[in-house]
Amino acid sequence: MRRLAGVAKRYGRNNYVLDGVELTIEPGNVVGVVGPNGSGKSTLLRIVAGLARPSRGTVTGDPVTGYVPDRFPGAQRLTALAYLVHMGRISGLSTAQARARGGAWLERLALAGGPDTPLRELSKGNAQKVGLAQALLAEPRLLVLDEPFSGLDESAHGVLGEVLAELSAREAGVVFTGHSAGRTRAHATTTLRLAAGSLRALEPESDATAVVVLTGAATDGWQTEPDVLSAVERSGAVELTVLARRCDEILLLALRRGCSVRHVDRRE
Amino acid sequence: MIATTRYQLALLAHSQRYLPPLIVFLAVLGVLYTSREAPVLPEFAVSGGALVVVTCWLAIALADVEDPVQRLVTLSHTGRRTVLLAGLGLAILVCGTALAGVSMLWATLVHGGIAATELGWGALAHAACAFTGLAVGLPCSRLLVPRAGYTVVAALLALAVVLVVRWVPLVNPMLRQLAGEHAPAAPVLTALAASAVALVVSATATTLASAR
């Protein structure tokens, strides 16, 4: 549905941010892209979403596309629902359709303060929910999300995971970026790494996980750590599933936080 | 396009950034329309000149409401940059039409009625002024100029050139002819055509240059 061939991008006369990117998104594909800050992930996504032109190379395919930026600004006084109705109408929905769909998405994403909260009064996490809702309004065939897991709270992560699975099930394509290889892999059908301006398959060895059981800790602080895949509270202890190659750093962090290590199980 | 224009008008209304230019325009009209006996075409020249400044100001204010990331989201809905910019431009022209309407209504009330031909030439002259103001405002706005200070300097310089320099064939020759109570037909039609061309060129250039 969308194909990038030999895509390169540079701003002005600076060095190329992207160079020789090859990417094909098929219906039902969920493509996760990981890479450090400044590796060009946002630039890549804007090109995938058709919002920026590559300096070189070709982009083909023209599906209905939803785009979620990494930080949804929402500095206007419009209410969340009024904003969604406007965006829906611009995408070609009727006012009634846009209102119904916008309201339903805000309810599903549990927007704090309700649909009539002005955009500028929303917290970062809640603004991000409106950012997600606007992209889903027109039932996109391709959804492009920039760091969708970083701004949302834990309960919205669950909904986002469901949404990605639903889109994939109805043969839409998804491309999203993330910092954590573990979490990205958990939601993607294909995981790629963006490094030195081009895309490569993510090395398979980073798949191995380890289980760490801690006492004297709460689950909430751990779920936001990069490469902690899950944190579950069990009979007074917290069981973390982490990427094996990050196990030692996480143990060190746990000790620094005053936790006690009860058990470590590396499954390599 | 209509949906985009509606959204832009909603942004402008909620932001209240239309207030300063609106107040300035009304103040100009308040000073302008005082005498029942004064000739009306020279008054339209002043009102039109003010409309150039105010439409330019409104275009810059409206383009500043959305930050670049937010505009990218809007672009993902319009699909094409042309539609995005046309919606913004149309919103400003709607405001310009309303302001010209206020000016001509005010003149009609003060003069106790105006000949239909004079009203007609006044309307066309105001249209030319709104086109020119928008044509200056678009490339000076945040769409192309990233810093507010540079925007102010660029817009003031461009407005001064368009309004004051005799050899710029946009609105200056028309405003001078109207102020001198000459026959309005030729200068008004020339200015209308020239400013429409200037607007198309400016909007196209802004669209192309903002697609980086």
TrEMBL record, chain A:
A single GO molecular-function term is: ATP binding
Judging by the UniProt lineage, the source's domain of life is: Bacteria
**A Pfam family annotated for this UniProt entry:** ABC_tran
Residues of the ABC transporter domain: 2-221
Keywords assigned by UniProt, alphabetized: ATP-binding, Nucleotide-binding, Transport
Database matches in PROSITE patterns? ABC_TRANSPORTER_1 (PS00211), ABC_TRANSPORTER_2 (PS50893)
Q: What protein name does the entry list?
A: ABC transporter ATP-binding protein
UniProtKB/TrEMBL annotation, chain B:
Membrane-spanning segments: 18-35, 41-62, 83-107, 119-138, 150-168, 188-209
Say if the entry is tagged with keyword Transmembrane helix.
yes
> Is DNA damage there in the keyword field?
no
Q: Which UniProt keywords apply?
A: Membrane, Transmembrane, Transmembrane helix
Name this protein carries in UniProt: ABC transporter
Query: Per the UniProt entry, what species is this protein from, by scientific name?
Result: Prauserella cavernicola
| Organism taxonomic ancestry | Bacteria, Bacillati, Actinomycetota, Actinomycetes, Pseudonocardiales
